[in-house]
Design a protein that fits this description.
- By secondary structure, the chain is an alpha/beta fold.
- Among the domains are: about 45 residues, no CATH class; about 70 residues, no CATH class.
- The protein has 4 helices and 7 strands.
- The strands form 2 sheets. A 4-stranded mixed sheet has the order 5-4-6-7, with helices on one face. Strands 1-2-3 form a 3-stranded antiparallel sheet.
- This is Dual-action HEIGH metallo-peptidase.
- It holds the Pfam family Peptidase_M57.
- InterPro entries: Peptidase_M10/M27/M57.
- Keywords: Signal.
């Protein structure tokens, strides 16, 4: 009698154990991108192919950086018209008032051709005579150009 009762309880417990349902959250490793982040990027109108996880955010379409806070923000846009050519819009506007100089530095791990290219880009931008100017510096920078992680589809990034 005792063993029959014990076997009945074990069988009942096994039945509940095997039939119980419980959702398990997928573990997101350090380099994986969560489905929520992919949905936010897609919702913003960007291609979700080849999204790369970096320190502090994501690189989309090879050259656009979104931080975690950028993905959490909800921009006030009513509609996105898709034309034949790609166009991007942002709500992040730069107001410089009278004039502003942004200091740009480049890491020593990049080849000298990058330094030359950066100097030329700065020269061309400053030749436009805008209120926003750029200057290459070795310290005290606002923007640091650094080498891209191994295996990425871009050469360097600013941030």
């Amino acid at each position: 009698m005792k063993t029959t009762r014990l076997l009945s309880l074990l069988a009942l417990a096994a039945m509940f154990g095997f039939s119980s349902c419980q959702k398990e959250e997928a573990d997101v490793t350090a380099n994986e991108i969560s489905p929520l982040a992919m949905a936010k990027i897609s919702e913003m109108g960007f291609n979700t192919d080849n999204v790369q996880r970096t320190e502090g955010g994501y690189i989309v379409e090879g050259d656009i950086f979104f931080s975690e806070s950028d993905l959490q923000a909800s921009p006030e846009t009513t509609a996105l018209r898709v034309g034949e050519e790609e166009q991007y819009r942002t709500n992040n506007l730069v107001s410089v008032g009278t004039s502003r100089t942004i200091n740009v530095a480049i890491t020593t791990s990049l080849p000298s051709s990058y330094v030359t290219a950066l100097d030329e880009a700065i020269r061309r931008f400053n030749a436009e005579n805008l209120r926003l100017k750029f200057r290459r510096v070795s310290s005290g920078y606002n923007i640091l150009l650094s080498k891209a992680p191994a295996g990425s589809s871009y050469l360097a990034s600013a941030g």
